[in-house]
TrEMBL record:
Pfam families: HTH_31. InterPro entries: Cro/C1-type_HTH, Lambda_DNA-bd_dom_sf. CDD domains: HTH_XRE (cd00093). This is Helix-turn-helix transcriptional regulator. Gene3D superfamilies: lambda repressor-like DNA-binding domains. One of its GO terms (molecular function) is DNA binding. It comes from Streptomyces marianii.
Length: 351
């Protein structure tokens, strides 16, 4: 397999240099040949590759990657992230950015939905995974620090119909949190990151842009290894006037890591506050997520969820089938009424 080139993995000047080196090598370029193709000097190309340039200018980077046959947009987005993180951030600046990110969720009806595992007679009330419990704790403590209202907390199998229209924060993957499953299915056509679901309990994550699968690897005792987390912030598909934030891991460590990173490094998401998707990886040591790395961070097109009547194809198909079944039931009922000479039409079954 060749060396992976992915501008979504650029979050620092060092990351950018590494990716440009790979791009240069993959094309079999010489400095002079690429300079001619890009309309830049050989010295500029050399500086970009060996890191002598601090942070390249937008136009320089655009010419470089276009000459290499790349779409410049993801690379310019990566450059924007680097510039954002390179700015000196005072505690006051970070506080303003954090408040800007969470302002949409600072509502009295904010509802946090936590995944719940049902174990039947062993624990009729259900159990919350430890990782999801710590993710919830991270959020609650953070809300206290920034002075946000305390949210309503409920479980994935107990949320009422109208509550789906509230501003939502969903903790836990689709296996434990049914609302995460509902939301991710409705957003699937606008996302490039999601759960693979190759089998009923497959918890790996899939990047459809690179077609890469991210499967967690934990030791048999579950106390060490690697886990992955997914963060999606966009419009609530049940009510596009309010936001939804999905914090879901392959296992609980991934959910915990995602919540921690959201609260500790909110400024990393500053360029994409409105709507984004993010894939994170974390090392697990002693049953605790340690170093957290952003593997992909992409802006989402909010227009995909602007129309409250828009439905995913699978839901449209399901409704069409239900309508067809209902029409057939009505026809059967009419025939029965005529045969029986009842003089009125029976109601279709289940009405």
């Amino acid at each position: 397999m060749g060396v992976r080139i992915n501008p979504d993995q650029v979050h620092s000047r060092e990351d950018l240099i590494k990716q440009l080196e790979r791009l240069f090598a993959a094309g079999g370029w010489s400095f002079d040949r690429l300079a001619n193709a890009a309309g830049l000097s050989s010295a500029t190309i050399h500086s970009l590759i060996d890191g002598k340039t601090n942070i390249p200018r937008k136009k320089t980077l655009e010419k470089f990657v276009e000459a290499c046959g790349e779409d410049p947009e993801p690379w310019l987005a990566a450059l924007a992230r680097i510039y954002q993180l390179a700015k000196p951030h005072t505690a006051q600046t970070r506080s303003r950015q954090s408040r800007a990110f969470w302002r949409e969720f600072s509502k009295p009806n904010l509802t946090v939905v936590v995944g719940l595992h049902q174990l039947g007679r062993w624990e009729p009330s259900g159990l919350i995974g430890v990782g999801c419990a710590f993710a919830l704790s991270e959020l609650q403590q953070y809300f206290v620090r920034i002075g946000a209202p305390s949210p309503v907390i409920t479980y994935g199998d107990r949320i009422k119909g109208a509550e789906r229209r509230h501003p939502l924060i969903l903790i836990g993957g689709p296996d434990s949190n049914g609302i995460t499953d509902e939301v991710m299915q409705r957003l699937s056509s606008s996302l490039s990151l999601g759960f693979s679901r190759r089998s009923p309990h497959d918890v790996s994550l899939h990047d459809s842009q690179t077609d890469q699968i991210y499967a967690p690897e934990l030791q048999p005792r579950g106390d060490e290894g690697t886990d992955y987390g997914l963060v999606v912030k966009t419009k609530n598909p049940f009510n596009p006037q309010v936001p939804v934030l999905v914090i879901a891991g392959s296992f609980g460590y991934g959910s915990w890591a995602a919540a921690r990173h959201l609260t500790e490094a909110t400024d990393e998401f500053a360029p994409l506050y409105a709507s984004f998707e993010c894939l994170l990886g974390t090392e697990v040591v002693d049953r605790t997520p340690q170093a957290i790395n952003i593997l992909a961070l992409r802006k989402l097109d909010q227009a995909m969820t602007d129309d409250p009547l828009r439905e995913d194809a699978r839901y449209s198909d399901r409704r069409q089938a239900e309508v067809s079944h209902f029409s057939q039931a009505q026809g059967v009922a009419r025939i029965r009424a005529l045969i029986a000479g009842a003089g009125h039409e029976e109601k279709p079954p289940g009405s």
